[in-house]
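hey team, just a heads up i'm posting the complex here instead of the shared drive bc the drive is being weird again. everything in one block, sequence lines first with there labels, then the predicted structure for the whole assembly after. its two chains so it's a bit long, scroll down
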Amino acid sequence: MNRSITAPAPALSKAGRKGKLSYKTLRKLVPYLYVTPATLLLVLLMLFPMAMVLRYSLMDGAIMKRDAAFVGLQNYITIFQNPVFWQSLYQTLYFTVMSVVFHFVLGLAFAMLLNTNRVDPTIRSILRVLFILPWLFTAVIIAIIWRLLLDPNGVVNSVLMALHIIDFKVEWFSSTKTAIHALTFANIWAGYPLFMVSLLAGLQGISKELYEAAGIDGANEFQKFWHITIPQLMPIIISIALLDFIWTMQVFPLVWMTTGGGPIYATEMLSTFTYKLAFAQYEFSLASASAIVILLISMSVTYFYIKHQQRR
Amino acid sequence: MAKRSLKNSVLPTVLTYLGLAIGLVFAAFPIVWMFFSSLKSNTEIFALPPKLLPDDFTISAYLTIFNDPTKVRFFINSYFVAGVVTALTLFIAILTAYAFSRYSFRFKNTLNIFIISTQTVPPITLLIPYFGMVVAFRIFDTYLALILTYLVFTLPYAVLLMTGYLNTLPKELDEAVLVDGGSSWTALWRVIVPVSIPGIVATAVYTFLLAWNEFLFALTLTKSMDLRTVPIGIQLLMGQHAFEWNEMMAMSVLGSLPLLVLYLVAQRYFLAGMTAGSVKS
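-- predicted structure starts here --
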């Protein structure tokens, strides 16, 4: 298809002015042809569904009723009057902010440890691979691993009891007090490598001369870290933190497979709250309203992300 | 003086190794525990005091899985869906990335922003209309439903990663083909694609990972056991026999294996590609 459009130029040189003109016009179409499949797919399966979910959210009994009527913002009002929604929102924010902060702290610590030349290069490259491993695991598998480790009779309780840190078997995932923390911890374990990999690349890109110049000026290690390392890494930190925030906020399988949002609503997240509305209670309209709220939060963070990317 | 310099060089090195050792335990212990648990008998899993290595190594959990056609089917499904999604994603992404990297055209910036923002659309938001659409088009509980919906979230990453990679290639490469009278199509497939193998491998591995790990759509858009993928299979296993821990661990090991192998094989490409995409996209 493209072959005929971008026909070899020599063949056209004899074709005269008119032919040349249409050849030029056709040539301009080439990039559009290349982007057509992706654009078509994303419009049909991204823009169109988003319009649909918006429409559902304004109707009463979407999907379930044939003659679903428009009810304006009624579904949003119902959602906002539901205390579980607010609890889910608060818990999602807690889970997300804690995750992103610790992903950053651990990611930076590991990246800096791996970046020093104090460690043998072979050990360094082996450790780099090993430190990335948690990131390669499916959320479902991460959930199962942590359910095993944090089982009341599991190894974590045994170790903590042996060290006299706790004196009874804690039911990490089934107690309302600990469930959200256990879940956040599992997610911190699973997610720090993205920060680590990106910051490691960033660290390797910082010019050694900056540190040497600071050394000559008598800066100590902490001053170098605070005045060179952190500012130099800032663009990466901001990008990854925003992306991580957006993705962590959408958490579903990890919660679904560990606590299912329980006990009671102690670990209910916006995603599980919405999923249950749709596929346990078949309240697709209410679920759509809730899904739109999640989309709006995501989109507002995305806005900052894109602004930040374009400024760089 | 001598003491001071010794302290200055040895202490930081010791602390660095100590930090790395703690990090290694944190990162790897859960994975090692999973692996050895899959080789324990079910009664030994919660032995007191806990032991990392089983007293009797047994592969019975693995044999149970291999002898159960339903469970083998989970793996076949995952490989098939992730494979098809990876191939389609790569093809479409290469075309799109080529246009982004080599042409300037109207709407290019708009399209680019659109693709970046689709990365961040919550799957749960799309799930509800997808459910409606999949039922309406009568493709509920089919491979097609999974493949189409997976493409939507694999494609944006693939386009960004590939565009980042193609941007690093000199324009003279394809211009040489165009000057010789070849079409841009020829330039793309004969010249650009062969030299882009590292970028393509990185993109393929990441796409496969995304598709292999997908949970929400597979959970909701399929129903029959014949179409369930590995993550859903593990979830079902958990519901059915809540206490067959060794079998669930074996399933998890097998479910992580393709990603570990792909990652180790393509490690160098993968890291370079990932950082190019995530840091500079």
